[in-house]
Amino acid sequence: MSQCGDKNLAGEIMAEKQMLVAQDTYLKAGIHIGTKFRTKYMESFIYKTRTDGLSVLNLQKIDERLRMASLLLSKYAPEDILIVSRRENGWFSVKAFTKHTGAQAFTGRFPPGILTNPALETYREAKIMLVTDAIPDKNAIKDAMAIGIPVIALCDTNNTANELDLVVPCNNKGKKSLGLIFYVLAREYLRGRNLLGKDEEPKFLLDEFSEE
Q1: What is the pLDDT of residues 188-197, one digit of tens each?
Q2: Global pTM exceeds 0.85
Q3: Is residue 47 in a domain?
């Protein structure tokens, strides 16, 4: 699998210079705040390390990868998309995304075999997967690899990326950050499917994607 993702998607976003949301909105959600641990896989996405040891992610790269993820997801029908989140902080946002897009979601522990064993009651079929954290969602990624479907992952500075098709660098632990991420992904997915005009705002609000 390729960490760089689909090169065609990168080409599609070259002409797009305005951020998906205002820079202040990104900053207020803390989407750029990483952890005190950084892996070699995430170094290229890190802007700097603060005096307290926390790494700060590059906002431009976050925005670019969110755009790429949206474009990739929009190539698939909603029923073919599976969003996975074992981390509880992502459940509210994931469920809001599926409510407004029609995509599938699996929250909580992901037992092996859900994508590979039709005999399971929890068996699902999917053509693309997005996970909120490649570490706790490793079982889901292994299932996706077994059936050969692409995996998009939200990755903080402590993640590895050698089994992923597209990395979206971000704070994948904070509720506000995850809320903003899934709001943007839902809006851009609908635009990519021509269900929402390019400059048209969705009927749903950002607040619907993030619980206090």
Answers
A1: 999 999 999 9
A2: yes
A3: yes
